[in-house]
Amino acid sequence: MKNDKEITAYINGQPIYRNFIENLPYNIKLKPRARALRKAGVLSEVIFWLQVHKEMFWKIDFDRQRIIGNYIVDFYVKTLGLVIEIDGSSHNNKETYDQKREDYLISLGLRVYKISDLRVKHDLNNVMMELEKYIVDEFG
């Protein structure tokens, strides 16, 4: 086994190795906001969620609107330490904030994968294939 790491999933027969990050900071005050974001259901996030919930994507478990530190990330894969962000118009003119947020998440040992809102809505099959490839490349 690679680096004696636990295999968490297989994608097209390729083992995907666990990269669990322990003791992530959690701001409990953000819990109501995270719940509200889940209920609001931004269209691109709902479309993506329908592809990955209930371990439908290679039996990998995704969380929605997960609190990490003082931030709420769109999707989080605990076993991989992977944050998935769907960037839409809410990210316009927030480049400095987004970069600070991404730098913070990376400083915790997490990996951040970004997907465009428009691509989720109009090119979902390729988006999912690219995510597969990213996971195989980074965790295989």
Automatic annotation (TrEMBL):
This is Very-short-patch-repair endonuclease. Keywords: Endonuclease, Hydrolase, Nuclease. It comes from the Bacteria. Pfam families: DUF559 (PF04480). Residues 30-133 form the DUF559 domain. It comes from Flavobacterium fluvii. GO terms for molecular function: endonuclease activity.
